[in-house]
Amino acid sequence: MVLQITDESFKALMKENKPVVIDFWAEWCGPCRMVGPVIEELAKDYEGKAIIGKMNVDENDEVSGEYGIRSIPTILFFKNGNLRDKHIGVAPKNVLEEKLKAIL
User: H helices within 1-104, ranges in order?
Assistant: First the structure.
């Protein structure tokens, strides 16, 4: 299941021992709708191994600003609270999965 992440819940997530993948998106973003199903699949495939979530940039500008999110979709990959990788734009599942596997 994809976790809905907010500015408030972000800090607690950064303390997790599991990798955290966050899809920064917005309702009005067409490419975000293309990435959404891929994020859903990854969340199912890696349940228990990684935390995979979405953060609406229109509702959560603090974290989006902190990480310089200027284009969406942007997917950030964290491990032990540190940004390890990112992908900007639409990507097939295998591209995002390889980035996730690299930080598992």
Answer: 7-13, 30-45, 61-66, 93-103
83 is catalytic: no
Total-model pTM: 0.96
Residue 51 has pLDDT above 90, yes or no: yes
Active-site residue flag, 29? yes
Fold of 3-103: Glutaredoxin (3.40.30)
Place of tokens 């972000």: 10
Domain boundaries, the chain: 3-103
Q: Determine which one of 29, 35, 63, 72 is catalytic.
A: 29
Q: Given 32, 43, 52, 96, which residue is catalytic? A: 32
